[in-house]
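To whoever is covering the structure queue this week,

Two jobs came back overnight. Logging them here so there's a record in the thread.

Job A:
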Amino acid sequence: MTELTTVHDVPVLMCPAEGEPIGSERDALDFIGEAGYLGARWVVIPAGRFDEAFFRLSTRVAGDIVQKFANYRVGLVVLGDISPYTEASPALRDFVRESNRGFQTWFLADAEELSERLKG
């Protein structure tokens, strides 16, 4: 069950580690809709919830999902260790680095890193 929480005065929708894999824009829309309904500015999804295709940029799954969140002006945080994927893919590593420089999509290791980012 998702949980709305506040981190440094920022409403954040925290998604559980267990649940159906997220592998399409349609899956993302469920979280975006809930975030909008609850007033969350960010949706935090554990990395393990994403379908393997999300981490293979050639599938375009990550790009489609990230774009959907951007279209609805909801931030996306992929939370957890994705190093096996970034070590295997220089393109993904670059995508993660560029995303983390912005204010729309972040790939973060843990809740402590999220707290630091939202401290502002």
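Job B:
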Amino acid sequence: MRQSPSIVPTDRLDRDIYLVLEDFGARAGCAWRETDEADTDLEAVLQGLLSGQYVYPVRIVCFNAGEGWSRDATSDVAAALAQRAVDSDGEISTALQDFIAANATRRFDVQLAVPLQGAA
């Protein structure tokens, strides 16, 4: 039986790769976001979430094909987002606040800033 080629680049297997499952609404449903290989590390995903590149994240998975493991990283990423929002006192979207509230394992005593619609 012929074996299919791997979709994972063989020369860059040994690193943690993060992928985001996003909800595109009732008609489109959820899908794993296609992204450039350079934007699959934790820092790039955090920046993408904070900048609004991902609007309604549902789940985030992390895998390392070189080491042969995968895991659900949703709660870790939600906690990291919450900490960044607290540290930077930055505004985050309501959808991202909901994601953090639903998934962060740590609770934060600081009220996160919410952007006001129509405010200049």
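Note for Job B: The beta strands are 17-23, 30-32, 57-64, 69-72.

Please reply-all if you pick these up so we don't duplicate work.
Q.
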